[in-house]
Amino acid sequence: MDIDEDDFVFYGTPIEREEELNSRKKKAVAEASGHLRTLPSWKQEVRDEEGRRRFHGAFTGGFSAGYYNTAGSKEGWTPQSFTSSRKNRAEFKQQSMLNFLDEDEKEELEGRSLGTASQFDTFGFTAAEIARKQAEKEQQQRPSAVPGPAPDEIVLPATESIGVKLLLKMGWRHGHSIKDSHANSLYKARREARKAFLAFSSDDAKSQPEDSEPGDEDHKSILDHQPVDDGFPSSQSTPVYIINPKEDTHGLGYDPYKHAPEFREKKRTRVSGKRGSGNKQALSIKDSLFGLKSGRAAPGFGIGALEDYDAEDEDVYASAYDIEDTYIQEDEEPLRSNTENNPKLVWKEQGVLPGFKVASNSDYQLERFDPPVIPKDFLPHHKFPSPLEFDKKPATPSPPPPEVPPPKDDNLKVLIEGVATLVARCGKLFEDLSREKNQSNPLFSFLIGGNGHDYYSRKLWEEQQKHNGQKKIALDGKLSSSVDKMTVESRGKILGEMPLERSSRDLSSSIASVNVNLPFNLSDTFTKPESFSEFPEVAKPFQDDPGKQERFEQFLKEKYQGGIRSTASAGASNMSEAARARERLDFEAAVEAIEKGKLNKENKLYSQQIVGFPASGGMQFTSGGLQQGKDTQDEDLATKKIYPRREEFQWRPSSILCKRFDLIDPFMGKPPPPPRMRSKMDSLIVTSDLKAMKMEEAFSADRNQPLALQFSPQEVSKDVVDRETVQVENVERPVDLYKAIFSDDSDDEIEASNFNTKEDPEKKIEVAHSTLNRLMAGDFLESLGKELGLEVPPNPPYSTNIARSSHQKESAIANAGNDNIQSVEEKSFSIPIAHGVFQEERMANDEKTAKKGEFRKDEQPRPSEDKSDKVYSGKIAQEDKKKAKLPRSLHRKRSSTSSEDESSRKRSRRHRYSSSDSYSDSSNDRRDRHRSRSKGRKKRQILFTLAHLGGAPTSWSIGCLLSVQVYGSLDSRVTINGYSELLDMKKPRTKRFNTLIPDARMKGLLIWSCVLASEGIKLDTCHWWGGWDLIHLVTASLTGQESNELQVSFTSKIS
Amino acid sequence: MSNVSELPSKEENVLKGHEGGVLAARFNGDGNYCLSCGKDRTIRLWNPHRGIHIKTYKSHGREVRDVHVTQDNSKLVSCGGDRQVFYWDVATGRVIRKFRGHGSEVNAVKFNEYASVVVSAGYDQSLRAWDCRSHSTEPIQIIDTFSDSVMSVCLTKTEIIAGSVDGTVRTFDIRIGREISDNLGHPVNCISMSNDGNCILASCLDSTLRLLDRTTGELLQEYKGHICKSYKLDCCLTNTDAHVAGGSEDGYIYFWDLVDASVLSRFRAHSSVVTSVSYHPTDNCMISASVDGTIKVWKT
Q1: In chain A, what residues touch B174 (CB-CB under 8 Å)?
Q2: More confident residue, B22 or A7
Q3: Which domain of life is it from (chain A) (predicted)?
Q4: Which of A287, A483, A687, B136 places its Cα 20 to 30 Å from the Cα of A915?
Q5: Residue numbers in B near A656 (CB within 8 A)
Q6: In this structure, what CATH number is given to the domain that contains residue A421?
Q7: Considering only CA atoms, which of A831, A801, A813, A834 is closest in space to residue A727?
Q8: A87 within some domain
Q9: In angstroms, how far is the first alpha carbon of chain B from the final one?
């Protein structure tokens, strides 16, 4: 190569084209990247990608035409990306085609559009300009729903300006934009031209007509009428968005037909119907125009894109087309109605059918009749057609029939009396009626004159006398008041109005009167009870003042008689108005008190007793109230002390209130008040549990034989009662707790629960909660007391009593259930409510019973325990080991343990507290029981451990758990430690305890207890010994099931 | 008469700010501040000695009828016509909790000594105790043995004492679980306890203040002269328990001698009903609130 080069001889200058180019390129690149940016724009040189300066021509821009030699704008032809952030709001940019047109193109375009329209444009501008301006002007004139100027693409003039008219006449239609149509057509023309130019080589003849078509079409569309549009209907038309002028009185944006579009339709038809009847010239023109248009011209979007498509493809958009159509129509309507605003309004007001005129004067007149004139002496009371006796001859009563002894037949006597009463009340007519009706009935022969007639007539007379007397009073009252000057009060009285504030009392009293009178006035169907004086003597609150009492009775009589009230009777005539009013108030209050007293007697409301009020008080309290307590509190009456008067009741503060007040619940350990149903359930558990256990044992003993063990109900119940009365709570409750918490799982499930311990936390929590709530801490106390070397005294007697009574009840219930029990499953299901939550879990399947057997087998006497810590840990370990054992000796064990269990239970109960020597024995027994009764799980034991540690330490002293921490780890060790405080009466002390359970497979268990803990179960209601209920969970932390350590911490407060 | 000169009767400050009647004004535990509440639905914290308005607590939907502050001044409790009891944080002015449950207006509210329980007295004839420690908004106890609206409540360390329109002052002793009802025969408007805790002063609607011995229920004295017939007017004993102070519906403030019940002093304090009086726990200073919208600070 070297030689070759050397040998060559070069003439002239070589054309350094490549190098030059390269260097230039480099320069361009350098400039582009480097200093070029720093130059001001006018000093920059525009170069192409090869670095050459580009010449655009002297006249149209020189070296830098367009936007840096690209497009006419900064954006150029690059597709726009839209970014908008909270801080930088992207402004809305609207691009129109004009943005991309060069000046000359625009000019060209302008010229062309002008050329076509100017022929018809009388105003010197393009029709589009005019239209837009018109729209603006109109918008200013009329109120619009859209404030401010609307974009002119949207608003098209809906006017009748000359230009529009002309345009319309020229065939321009609404919905077609003049400007845009031109632009579009031009654009299309240009496009076609471009296309043609690109393909100019191919077919001149074909492209030429296409090129010329848009121009032609413009003319066509204006000169010709609608049919022409079919060629390119869409590309030229824009949808008409017309802002509906708001002409109704609805709120902005409120559409009354929003949920009922059919009414809008209806309204529109109505409006159009009215319009149809209208006769305005412009209107009709417009109408015809619109009518023509609305059906046909359906300008659409995007059809332009379909230009090149086949006809069938357009069907895709057919539906859209329709929608567009209706849309436009809808928008048109208000516009039209706007133009005919006034007439429509008028019609609307008149409510005249289209085509009808409102008559100037109407023949029809509403005829009004005056109300009938009520005669002055009209009595607003119903009178029976047959006048009463006293009405006929009030002044001269007939001589009384002779006194006749009643007939011997009691029935007849009663009948006669009843009829007489009725007749006296309702008049002769009733007699006639009943006579007629009972003509054939021998019983009623006394009416016709047969047997007992004399007695009847006498009775009738008596009744009438009674009745008349009463009526007379009323009549007198009425007369006297009508004679008097009419006051509001008297008028009200006549009309039977009651003063407003007493209405409620009257209501209640009238109800009471009905109640009272019902028994002995059953026949009183037509009238109110006539005399209140027959009332029991309870209604004599003014015994000390006979006059007053009399007036009171009178008052009552009137009150219950209702309606008319005599002024004379309102009080003694010598009383002042004020005194009378006060007395009246007294009476009212007394009546009320009487009723209340009755109610109270019925309801036996102890605490609601009404205490006396001073009769002299300006208050509405009267001494009448005193009478009420007569039967219950005679001594109160006797020693009517001056105020203040002190009474004492029992009141039960809620335990949490005590806690918050830092006081000891005085009712601690006492059963909750009766309304709480839970207390019953507590005892329910015991019996049912026992029996269920037995049944389970029987069941597991021999599954195939139906009920190997038969219980006689009496025996069971007696047994239960026997035992439970001795000591109920100590035996069963803790077991229930554990069962509630843990009974659902077999051991296999324990393993499983390691992974899904949260499977049903809610249920468990519920169960645990309910059980904990009724937990009695005696057992814990006892054991802990022993642990601490303290002796636990027997339970207070009342608890035993309560237990006994409730157990008797429960056993009775259980007996009933016992009789018809067929299988063990049923039995366990028949266990009532208390176990309902985990009922299903108790259903014994084979596995479970087998497991149970295992545990029972484990119940062999343990090494005597001297330190509970050791024992418990050891126990757990033992259990774990024994888990592997086969249920071989199951049957034998079970039978033995069950019987053994029963006897040992009794024994242990008797000896439990008396001798500490029997401790190990009894505790063993107890544990046995726990096992046998529950489907004993080691979980239970663990919790038991916890409970022991946490239990209240001593009996009569207040002790509590200060803190407990439980650490479980994956290596199956559990550490429990904490502090408990013994608040002994003599010397309080704090004890620290620390327990290690070496092999416990605790993980799942601890999570459970954690769930228990984190639920914040407060043992509020377990106040057997104190202490236990003071345990209050403050913190519970759960460091996850997967983690190695699990911490449960209790902290409690001490008083 | 040296006694009389000790009584606050000089207007030291006027605390203005409430728009509408002031229904209650209360000193805080040490007497350095006072709280007021009124018909304008606000609670206001004042420094009465300097006459400064410190803070306004707004959240009530209706008039605020009573307010009480804890001993450590950290929490407020208020109640009113919106049937709720509001538990406030004093510093932030935020409502920590709202206790709902009263069936109608709540007339009075008090903290217990440890500020762990709020006891409210309502028109619904009940007393309700609310737990401030837990997050529960349910009442921990409802006492509904009253047969009319409960107007006022006082708490001691072991008792809840409440006065009702049914004419009774009922003491609920938590220690022994007893309810002691002292029937005064007249609607009780307001009760306040003597500083030694042995007596209850009950304002009755028969324009009488009655002093009861708490242990026996005996009526020790009656104080008359003022008008109290239809409004809930507060009454109190002075810090030394030597005098009884009370407002009147005619705008006067009355001072009685505790023992012989003679009116030692009366002066026109407000233009309208004096709804509330509160005596400084240690000094001879008193605040009074009135329907006229002002709170006045009285000193000797």
Answers
A1: 653, 657-658, 661, 663, 666
A2: B22
A3: Eukaryota
A4: A687
A5: 131, 140-141
A6: 1.10.10.790
A7: A801
A8: no
A9: 14
Binding-face residues of A in 599-628 toward B, CB within 8 A: 607-608, 610-611, 613-614, 617-619, 621
Contacts of A653 in chain B (CB under 8 A): 141, 172, 174, 177
Domain CATH number, residue B25: 2.130.10.10
SS3 assignment, position A363 = coil
DSSP A395: S
Q: Which amino acid is at A182?
A: H
Same domain membership, residue A717 and residue A569: no
Q: Which residue of A has its CA nearest to B184?
A: A644
Does A682 lie in the same domain as A601? Answer: no
Sheet of strand B178-183, all strands in order from the earlier edge strand to the far edge: A645-650, B178-183, B168-173, B159-164, B150-155
Segment A704-721 shows an average pLDDT of 41
Q: Higher confidence at residue B98 or residue A970? A: B98
Do the chains contact at A648 and B179, CB–CB below 8 Å? Answer: yes
Cα separation, A427 vs A433, in Å, equals: 11
A425 with A294, same domain? Answer: no
Q: Collect all residues of chain B within an 8 Å Cβ-Cβ radius of residue A619.
A: 186-187
Count the domains in chain A: 5
Of the residues A454, A483, A512, which one is the last residue of a structural domain? A483
Counting every residue, how long is chain A? Answer: 1055
Task: Give the model's confidence band at A890: pLDDT under 50 very low, under 70 low, under 90 confident, else very high.
Answer: very low
- Residue A649 scores a pLDDT above 60: yes
* Domain with A12 in it: 1-72
CB-neighbour burial class of residue A151 (10 A; exposed 0-12, middle 13-18, buried 19+):
exposed
* Owning domain of residue B36: 2-299
Check residue A37 and give its pLDDT.
54
Where b means 16+ CB within 10 Å and e means fewer, A631-661 reads eeeeebeeeeeebbbbbeeebbbbbbbbbbb
Q: What is the pLDDT of residues A206-230, one digit of tens each?
A: 444 444 444 444 444 333 444 433 3
Q: Residues A791, A935: one domain? A: yes
Contact between B221 and B214 under an 8 Å Cβ cutoff? The reply is no
A623 Cα to chain B: minimum distance (Å):
11
| A972 and A891 within one domain | yes
Q: Are residues A967 and A1020 in the same domain?
A: yes
Nearest to B175 among A608, A618, A666 (CB): A666
Q: Are residues A616 and A693 in the same domain?
A: no
Contact A643 B180 (CB under 8 A): no
Q: How far away is chain A from the Cα of B173, in angstroms, using its nearest Cα?
A: 8
Judge: A660–B218 Cβ closer than 8 Å, yes or no: no
Establish how many alpha carbons lie within 13 A of residue A400's alpha carbon, considering only the half-sphere containing its beta carbon: 12
pLDDT at A887 over 50: no
User: Domain check: are A180 and A301 in the same one?
Assistant: yes
Instruction: Determine the distance in angstroms separating the CA of A665 from the nearest CA of chain B, rounded to an integer.
Output: 7
Q: How far apart are the C-alpha atoms of A729 and A807, rounded to whole Å? A: 12
Count of the separate structural domains present in chain B: 1
A677 in reach of chain B (CB within 8 A): no
Overall pTM surpassing 0.95 (yes/no):
no
- Residues of chain A above pLDDT 90, percent: 0
Mean pLDDT of A680-701: 40
Q: What are the tokens at B287?
A: 């605040």
Mean pLDDT, rounded, of chain B:
88
Q: Of B118, B183, B218, B228, which to mutate for an interface test with A (greatest number of A Cβ within 10 Å)?
A: B183
- pLDDT at residue number A659: 82
Q: Name every chain A residue with its beta carbon within 8 A of the beta carbon of B217.
A: 644-646
